[in-house]
Amino acid sequence: MFRTKLAPAPLAALALIALASSALAQSAPTLDAPPEPPADALPLKLSMSYDGKVVVKILQVDIDEEAGPKAYAAKAHLRTYGVLALFRKINLHANSVGRIVGDKVIPSAFFHHNTDGKRERRVKTAWTRTDVATASEPPFEFLGDPAATKSQKLEAIDPLSQFVRIALKTVKGDNPCGDSGRFFDGKQRYDVDFIPEGPGQIGEREKRLGLTKAVKCRMHYRPVAGFKKKSAEEKQEGLKKDVVAEIARVGLDGPWVINTMKADTRFGQATLVLTKLTVKGALDEVEQRNPVVATN
Questions:
Q1: Is the pLDDT of residue 81 over 80?
Q2: Fewer CB within 10 Å of terminal CB in the chain, N or C?
Q3: How far apart are CA 19 and CA 121, in angstroms?
């Protein structure tokens, strides 16, 4: 979901959203500010915090989602932690807004802003019914070999919208694992296949977080466009095998959220673990229920 150069591809938040985009054009969105949240009521609110570890904690990830019957908004903050921050500073903010039409999540805009101690980059991608336009400051000169086509961009959604898609898809009773996600982050277009691997684990940590059921899901990453030419080994981006995620349900009838992700890399096992969870409201209500708040 979120891409990484630390330990690869789809390790949904052990990593950077790839900071790349199309060259500036007249139809490109402006970079003045992140997208405004929708005017529609967004009664379902989720806040999640994750620790990313390779032996020790190296990454902190916070994700907030809001959704209603017709619209959604999401934001994320990703930053390096501990020893990694001494060698590679990452401070990335991302925002996404869009529409909900039936069972589909349709992004309107995706914005991400990263500072790494040496440089700063802002990227904004806007979707319309007929096109996808990206603006970047500073602009990128290389768009991949091959670059993503218009049809490839239009069929995909941004990484944050994929988190919302999982939550909304499963709120409506569908299996959280068993389809494919099509991603476009402003430059890179890739797919992640979610393959069922049986039931997940509900231990004491999960119970403290209010999680009641879990499924194990193998995530197979497939680059499509917007990348440099790579050998078969390089395309694995340091992964020895597919990432394995556990997706768990909040309460008896709440949304499903990513609980853990694990990947075997050349640096050792990389893990992403849910440490804090807050859920308020429901998708189809305007009056909010009492919030569920839990920490590991």
A1: no
A2: C
A3: 7
